């Protein structure tokens, strides 16, 4: 398939670099301020050399990229809340032209799932968004395989930054502020870590899973959210003395309630993954509990989920 | 889709009982000695009442079921080795009529993968076999999603009976023979447990995964197999003193070598699932390691994998 990629951060860049390996071709790419269109396929090295040197990917703008002759739009711009713009508008433009859309951007499916499905219903194009939940872990594909109506509940550790911090606090007996600074030094946490440590990122993933399981109706506002910023190191020490640990767990329960909160778990619980790992646990009507774990973030990891979606659309 | 189901054991029965929930219809069913064909759809309750009372599902034979007007054949007769008959012949008959085939029977894909793919190449029908590896766990679908060429190695705990026995031996400090008798009482091990405890079942699953990863070429003979029958309880005690445990691990390594053998693992290793749980671990080129765990056997669990395949074929 011919791909147009919006967003030239870690994920967008990895999609451009790996697309050829999957037999697809990137014909257009935009970052936040510039765009490039090459009907015969982009030269990834040349484009990123230019971006690194001049801060732009090409002479054109986002509008030109949206107008390019592509089969599938990959939306990998940063997640935004509320109206989920500009990501939502990008998806809208592609669907209006009967093109397929693959989202890595969580905003449109977390905040405007119903609006988006209405556009899909009117379009000959289709929509997939595996990359929006837990990176490389095939959460959405597994729900699709089992059938959303046969998944009664879902829970998981959905944010690697928060999990890294909790794991380090428990292992070293250090306080939150101390470990956060370490995580920032390592590049595991961003300079402004609020999105991760306050549980918002995990809550967006919960909203997306809830939308998939219940056919829509959820936004971030429907998720009860508590982060990890007020957990003292002493709480983790107390937990450890009792063979337990704390994880930031996102959950959509059987009644359809969605929440993110720190939870006390047995130290050897399947959910208690360590470091930046993520895990998704699905309860099913006929097949018991399924556990899926792996890398929940990262450019190539998330691009793997994007390109698996592109392959499914190509089939 | 209209399904013909071959095999009326736990898996075949669950497929018949659950098909309607998935929007499919079973129009024919055979057990080892009888068959029933109902163009308008079987009455599952009536058929299994008859089987329980008279030992037959109907007046017809397997040939009549193979000749029925179905879209997809579900092959769920017991796994056989070498020529994999009669399962292979059933799949062959369906593909020759350009029908789709879904296998729960491991024999044809473990022992005659290349022969089977040659038949698929000549047919308008397609073949899927998610249920042959680790029951409800979406191992094959996840390999398909990542792309077989991007999965560099696979390993896992692939036999619930052997894992139950090892877990109990370690937990109770009991010997193999003692725990085997207990497992047989509980129905977790069969009267003749050789297939499970000697590693053959796990080895067939390894051969199937190796065929998927490498495009064929493997049979049971290509898998180096050691079971759990000669592990003394004292070995597990020694392991436990060192924070370790033993699991029967099946593996297809980076060089393409396939083997099943007891392996010493850290007690809290992701691979060290307990009881009858299975796990599949995939190493990928761009997405790191993925872990998939859940119930590896059971009628409804395996039927879930069968019906997910039917859904994929229907799409």
UniProtKB/TrEMBL annotation, chains A, B:
It holds the Pfam family ELFV_dehydrog. Gene3D superfamilies: Dihydrodipicolinate Reductase, domain 2 (3.30.360.10), NAD(P)-binding Rossmann-like Domain (3.40.50.720). It is an enzyme of class 1 (oxidoreductase). Residues 2-61 form the Glutamate/phenylalanine/leucine/valine/L-tryptophan dehydrogenase C-terminal domain. NADP(+) binds at residues 7-12. NADPH binds at residue 106. Keywords: NADP, Oxidoreductase. GO terms for biological process: threonine biosynthetic process. L-homoserine binds at residue 190. Its EC number is 1.1.1.3. One of its GO terms (molecular function) is homoserine dehydrogenase activity. The active site is at residue 205. Residues 139-310 form the Homoserine dehydrogenase catalytic domain. Belongs to the homoserine dehydrogenase family. This is homoserine dehydrogenase. It comes from Halocalculus aciditolerans. The lineage of its organism: Archaea, Methanobacteriati, Methanobacteriota, Stenosarchaea group, Halobacteria.
């Amino acid at each position: 398939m011919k791909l147009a990629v919006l967003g030239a951060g870690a994920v967008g860049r990895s999609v451009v670099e790996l697309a050829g390996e999957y037999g697809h071709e990137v014909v257009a790419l935009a970052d936040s301020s510039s765009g490039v269109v090459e009907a015969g396929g982009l030269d990834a090295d040349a484009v990123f050399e230019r971006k690194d040197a001049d801060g732009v990917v090409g002479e054109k703008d986002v509008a030109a990229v949206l107008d390019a002759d592509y089969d599938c739009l990959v939306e990998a711009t940063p997640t935004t809340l509320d109206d989920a713009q500009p990501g939502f508008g990008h998806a809208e433009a592609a669907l209006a032209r009967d093109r397929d859309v693959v989202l890595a951007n969580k905003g449109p499916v977390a905040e405007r799932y119903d609006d988006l499905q209405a556009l899909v219903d009117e379009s000959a194009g289709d929509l997939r968004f595996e990359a929006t939940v837990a990176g490389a872990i095939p959460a959405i594909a597994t729900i699709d395989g089992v059938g959303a109506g046969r998944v009664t509940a879902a829970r998981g550790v959905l944010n690697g930054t928060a999990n890294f911090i909790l794991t380090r606090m428990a292992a070293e007996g250090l306080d939150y502020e101390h470990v956060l600074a370490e995580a920032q030094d390592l590049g595991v946490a961003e300079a402004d870590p609020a999105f991760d440590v306050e549980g918002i990122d995990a809550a967006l993933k919960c909203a997306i899973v809830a939308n998939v399981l219940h056919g829509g109706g959820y936004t971030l506002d429907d998720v009860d959210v508590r982060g990890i910023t007020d957990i003292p190191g002493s709480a983790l020490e107390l937990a450890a003395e009792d063979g337990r640990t704390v994880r930031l767990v996102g959950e959509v329960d059987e009644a359809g309630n969605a929440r993110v909160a720190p939870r006390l778990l047995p130290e050897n619980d399947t959910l208690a993954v360590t470091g930046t790992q993520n895990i998704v646990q699905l309860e099913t009507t006929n097949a018991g509990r399924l556990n899926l774990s792996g890398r929940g973030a990262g450019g190539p990891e998330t691009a793997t989920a994007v390109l698996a979606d592109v392959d499914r659309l190509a089939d």
